[in-house]
């Protein structure tokens, strides 16, 4: 019960890693959409979207998306949590494929990644999509 209450307090958007990445991109002069609805998919949104370039950037939390390095599994209700976390990963795969089928490029960044390194990855990908030398 305590774990469920604590988890319900987690922010679905505007997390510290997401804000740091957005700040770095904004400081570099990039403009983007935040919590952009995934085309033709209800209740799914892109953390940072560049609609003209069709680039979707997701900042994934290590716990919720089962990071191989930092993901953990609660001991209480282990079966329930395992199913929930696997469902999250399956949804991520479905959303990625849905976007790719519509011509989008998908970039997933882990919350533990350095925001400046992640920003450089996004900027490099944007320059490639624009056909510019990186």
- The CATH top-level class label: Alpha Beta
Number of domains: 1
What is the name of the CATH topology? Endonuclease, Chain A
Q: Rg, please?
A: 16 Å
CATH superfamily: VSR Endonuclease
**Biggest β-sheet, characterized?**
4 strands, mixed
User: What is the subunit arrangement here?
Assistant: single chain
By secondary-structure content and strand pairing, the structural class works out as: alpha+beta
Task: Outline the structure in words.
Helix 2 crosses helix 4 (115-129). This protein has helices at 2-8, 16-27, 78-101, 115-129, and strands at 33-37, 45-50, 55-60, 105-110. Strands 1-2-3-4 form a four-stranded mixed β-sheet, with helices on both faces. The model has no long low-confidence stretch (mean pLDDT 87). It has one domain (2-129): 3-Layer(aba) Sandwich (Endonuclease, Chain A). It contains four helices and four strands; from the N terminus they run ααβββαβα. The termini are far apart. A hairpin with a 7-residue loop joins strand 1 and strand 2 (45-50).
Supply database-style keywords.
134 residues; alpha+beta; Endonuclease, Chain A; 4 strands
Give a short overview.
The chain has helices at residues 2-8, 16-27, 78-101, 115-129, and strands at 33-37, 45-50, 55-60, 105-110. With 134 residues, the chain is α+β, with helices and mostly antiparallel strands.
Task: Furnish the topology, listing elements before pairings.
Elements (H helix, E strand, L loop, with lengths): L1 H7 L7 H12 L5 E5 L7 E6 L4 E6 L17 H24 L3 E6 L4 H15 L5
Parallel strand pairs: 3-4
Antiparallel strand pairs: 1-2, 2-3
